[in-house]
Give the backbone structure.
Amino acid sequence: MIEAIVRANEGHANPYGADPETARFGELVRVEFGEAAVGFPMLNGTGANVAALRAMARPHQAVICASTAHIHIDETAAPEVIGGLKLLTADTSDGKLTPELAATRLADPADVPHAAWPVVVSVAQATEVGTVYTPDEIRALADFAHEHGMLLHVDGARLANAAASQGLTLNEASLGAGADVLSLGANKNGALFGESVVFGDPELARGFEVLRKGSLQLASKMRFVSTQLNAQLEGGLWREIAEHSNSMARLLADGIEWTEGADLAQAVQANIVFASMPIAAARRLVEACTPNSPLLFEAGEAGIIRLVCSWDTQPEDVDRLLGLLRSAQG
């Protein structure tokens, strides 16, 4: 990523995305997602999600999502504050929406003017708890959304991990399975900064250049974002990075299952691991990891630790953490 940025810094280039790197990104998007696809580099994940949702819904409308969704939990109400969009959440044990769960949040009846009408279903691929949607599951949600006059948005902050874990292309794990708009992640797969929004239908992208600017996501030196996206898409670097972080997560998960007193709280299908243990042990582990402490969720007598493997996680890092985990069990 740094090498790509250094190369993009050579010479001069036009600003605001009118540069060769951004033009190349558009070409790579069409190769990856189909000739009709249109992609827009963005500055960060929250901005990409909010701008994508604003392109799909009007301010008085609503978005159906899981109660664990990043747009609901971790974006400081940005969809509501910036987009004016109501989020309608559905509880799910594994972070994944189904048509049946989404149906519980449909307006009833749909023409009553006292409630926000849902026009978008949004799912995270991979989910916030580390599970992934199969193409059939994405297709079922897309069919459900379209049958009810809605669109399907995929928050693909970890799309690379979800696709790599199933041996799929980025397209097969998202737009190619029926989704309409994708927030395509890069930061969580090795980039320094920058994400993108990809539309499967250019009609949905009409006017997005203006909306992106109004969403504070247009950089004058956009080439430094685009060059990182290009580095990931060209030659399949995204898959190489994701396969590595996924494999480290599986190694960690195996070690947790072999540790007395600890267990997995969720299936490990990408690069996120949730470990369950007695609350006292969880607190000791967090303290032992200071200053790089993992997130701890307390649930009565149990503690759930969130662990994430990245592009540079090594087996010795996993072994070191497992040693701390065993010591924390007392």
Notes: The CA atoms of residues 4 and 275 lie 36 Å apart. The longest helix spans residues 237-257.
